[in-house]
Every structure is written in structure tokens, then in C-alpha cells.
Write a structure and sequence with these properties.
Length: about 170
């Protein structure tokens, strides 16, 4: 059991058990609002390969590097049959500003209630300047056309993540 500053106790073991993302098994489903304000479900992508990346926050240094790296490689990823989707807890408005300011063309989904984040087990205890908080661990998941999780990348580094991802996918 862990206590956050001024918060309720958080059972980290219970949070870890919420991870339903298992390689070789169906990817956990979800329905979230997109940067366009439309409902998007993972099931909408059955028949397509999906790269689902979770990132902590719009318009921050690391997340911008990661998003721009996906954008720079988007044509090659799309040509290889992959759709790219980014997920964070940011609002639709924040996603719209992020997409516009960085000229991003792939879909961003808003998960303010951490529904997909918890299903994929990306909520982790973080520590910044002595302050502990629950935040998104930068992670990427690859899902095949049948909706099966084929790859997972956790604790990724924005700078070299796309090269590692492309190598793993033979792109």
C-alpha cells in the first residue's frame, strides 16, 4: 500500500493486476473520444494492424519527440499496413492544440478516466522532485488484424523508440 501526498492510499498491487494486455491474447478493448470529439473503439480497427502508444502529456519535451518521431515515420508505417494511435489522459482540447502545433496527422485519444491506461497496465508510480504520483509509463503495443497483441514495449525512450519498433516489425 502506498500513500500519495494528501491523497487516498493506492494499492499498487491491485493496479498492476489490472493489466489485461498479454502478448498472444486479444488486446483489451476500449472506446474513447478522439481529438475530433468522436468515439473511437479498438474494435473499429479489426482487419487492420495497430500501433497503440501511450504517452504522459501533450506538449512536453519527451512526448513531443515521440509524437514527431511517429509522424516522421508515419508514411512508412502506413505503407506497412499499420495505423498509429496515441493515448494520454489529456483533454480533447489539449489533443487538438498538440496536433495543430506539431502538425500531427494520426489519431490521438483522450483517456481522462484512465480506462485504457489501466487495461494496458501503463499507470505507474512516478517520483518527480520528491513528489510521488501515479502517471503514464511511456509504452507501445502492436496489435494484429485479428485484434491480438503481438508486441509490447514498456519504459520506452522517445529518442530511439521508433528505430527499435521498426526493427522489431521488420519495417
Amino acid at each position: 500500500m502506498c500513500h500519495l501526498n494528501k491523497g487516498e492510499p493506492i494499492d499498487l498491487d491491485a493496479i498492476a493486476k489490472l493489466n489485461k494486455a498479454v502478448i498472444g491474447q486479444p488486446a483489451p478493448g476500449f472506446t474513447l473520444l478522439s481529438d475530433e470529439g468522436k468515439e473511437v473503439s479498438l474494435s473499429d480497427y479489426l482487419g487492420k494492424k495497430v500501433i497503440l502508444f501511450f504517452y504522459p502529456k501533450d506538449n512536453t519535451a519527451g512526448c513531443t519527440v515521440e509524437a514527431l518521431s511517429f509522424e516522421d515515420n508515419l508514411k512508412k508505417l502506413n505503407e506497412s499496413g499499420y495505423e498509429v494511435i496515441g493515448i494520454s489522459r489529456d483533454s480533447i482540447s489539449s489533443h487538438q492544440k498538440f496536433k495543430t502545433s506539431k502538425n500531427l496527422t494520426f489519431t490521438l485519444l483522450s483517456d481522462p478516466d484512465e480506462v485504457a491506461c489501466r487495461e494496458y497496465g501503463v499507470m505507474k508510480m512516478k517520483n518527480m522532485y520528491g513528489r510521488k504520483y501515479l502517471g503514464i509509463e511511456r509504452s507501445t503495443f502492436v496489435i494484429n488484424e485479428l485484434g491480438i497483441l503481438t508486441h509490447e514495449f514498456r519504459k520506452v525512450t522517445p529518442k530511439d523508440h521508433l528505430e527499435k519498433l521498426k526493427k522489431a516489425l521488420d519495417i
